[in-house]
Design a protein that fits this description.
six-stranded parallel beta sheet; about 50% helix; 8 helices; alpha/beta
Length: about 200
């Protein structure tokens, strides 16, 4: 069973690919907007091999909320074997216009959310001696770019966090990997470009 923290664009594009796999793969979808998560869950119910989907809201990265999300996923689907940390937000502005409030907002979702979701779901994978954690970073987390200092810093943090996990988990079975996509044509990217 798969748990996904995700946004409404790249995550929505990836889900049909996962759903097309012949093996049974139940999905638990958590996003920033519960209505969007429920809609995506309903789209997957038509897959012939899919028996359950569930959706919950995941607006802010709070430890208690992550525990509640995990409990909801397990109650609906059973053991979660794969966690995809794909939820993310961005902003674009010269450093002199970057506020501390905005800096903290990006870190709360992009970094703290990844940390808290992994902390919530990984122990069960270690206990089962199998699991997959996939963290979606960004090419900005490897190279940086003008006008996106806060976003780039959060994605550098996701890359570093991912590299730090394997020694702790790999010996017990679960693996942890990170993917760093380039720019994707989404509403999030459009807003960032518009603010630069």
């Amino acid at each position: 069973h798969t748990a996904r923290r995700e946004n409404s664009s790249t995550g929505a594009a990836c889900r049909p690919k996962m759903a097309a796999k012949p093996r049974q793969c139940w999905s638990f979808i958590s996003g920033r907007h519960a209505s969007g998560s429920r809609k995506q869950a309903q789209l997957l119910l038509g897959r012939p091999h899919r028996r359950k989907t569930a959706a919950m809201n995941f607006t802010r990265a709070h430890a208690l909320q992550c525990i509640e999300v995990r409990a909801g996923a397990v109650a609906r689907l059973g053991r979660i074997e794969i966690l995809v940390n794909n939820a993310g937000i961005s902003s674009s502005a010269p450093l002199k216009r970057q506020s501390l409030e905005e800096w903290r907002r990006l870190f709360a979702v992009n970094v703290e959310g990844t940390f808290l979701a992994t902390k919530a779901f990984l122990p069960e994978m270690v206990e089962a001696k199998w699991g997959r954690v996939i963290n979606v970073a960004s090419v900005a987390g490897r190279t940086g770019a003008a006008y996106i200092s806060a976003y780039a810093a959060t994605k550098h943090a996701v890359v570093g966090f991912t590299r730090a996990l394997p020694p702790a988990a790999a010996a017990s079975g679960p693996t942890d990997n990170e993917v760093s996509p380039g720019y994707v044509e989404t509403a999030l990217t459009g807003r960032s470009i518009g603010n630069s």
